[in-house]
Amino acid sequence: MNSTANILLAIGASPVMAHSIDEVEEIASVSSAVILNIGTIQHSWLESMILAGKTANKNSIPVVLDPVGSGATKLRTEAVKRIFDEVKIDVFRGNTSEIMSVISEGVRTKGVDSTLSLNSELRESIKSLANKKQCIVTASGENDFITNGSESWLTKNGHHVMTKVTGTGCGLSAVTGAFCSVLPKDKLKACVAASALFSACGEKAAKISDKPGSFITAFLDTLYTCDDEDVLKSMNIVQLDTT
């Protein structure tokens, strides 16, 4: 929660973290976006997430679901599936293994680490999931794959040290929510922009330090100080297909 809040503050967003069922409905109703993160899931928090998601749906507020560790345990995988059943999800953002665990029961993850590379077959499966769930899917990895089922993009920045710092994926989910709150009528563009900014800043920060402890400091500073021209010059975005 701390790292995610700091990442949001660095880009100029205003985060509030909540998991008590006594307040999530109130907080969600006045938020610009709601991010449901199952990172430390327990049954009471799951009920809070569903209530927050339903409140956001009622108020036309974008909802981002981060399936942290889905596929690692039955609790996590079933929690993600239940949220999908009860809440309209706008963006599903996770690593490839986490996302595929919702598609195929045979997929297992190692905690929050992805065990799958994003080949063309998996991309097609993810596109099918986006169509089935009527949402945007962002699958993070060496490159990030973003699709709404008919239009697909790759963002190709980033650095491997980002996988050595806990909370970077959660941070991307939160930044994605913040971007969707600014572009609620073009969430696909918001998701691509969020991924491109995040990975480009990660790549730039790694040039300052490629060691985990000092990297996160450099990364926050880079997010905080980056300007439009600086980021646009370094973004590597590829459109794959459109229908």
Can you walk through the features of this model?
The chain is an alpha/beta fold. It has helices at 2-10, 24-29, 43-58, 74-86, 96-103, 120-133, 168-182, 187-208, 212-225, 228-234, and strands spanning 34-37, 63-66, 91-95, 136-140, 144-147, 152-155, 237-241. β4 (136-140) and β5 (144-147) form a beta hairpin.
Task: Give the gist of this structure.
The chain has 243 residues and is α/β, with parallel strands linked by helices. It has 10 helices and 7 strands. The N and C termini lie far apart (38 Å).
Please specify the SSE layout and strand pairing.
Layout: H1 2-10, H2 24-29, E1 34-37, H3 43-58, E2 63-66, H4 74-86, E3 91-95, H5 96-103, H6 120-133, E4 136-140, E5 144-147, E6 152-155, H7 168-182, H8 187-208, H9 212-225, H10 228-234, E7 237-241
Helix pairs in contact: 1-7, 1-9, 5-6, 7-8, 8-9
The helix/strand series, from N terminus to C terminus, equals HHEHEHEHHEEEHHHHE
Question: How many H/I helices?
Answer: 10
How can the largest sheet be summarized? 7 strands, mixed
Question: Which geometry do the CA atoms define?
Answer: globular
Specify Rg, calculated over alpha carbons: 17 Å
- Spans of at least 5 consecutive residues whose pLDDT stays below 50 are 111-115
Overall pLDDT? 90
Total count of strands: 7
Percent of residues in helical segments? 40-55%
Structural class: alpha/beta
How far the N terminus sits from the C terminus, by CA atoms, comes to: 38 Å
Identify the strand order in the major beta sheet: 1-2-3-4-5-6-7
Measured by DSSP, the beta-strand proportion falls in 5-15%
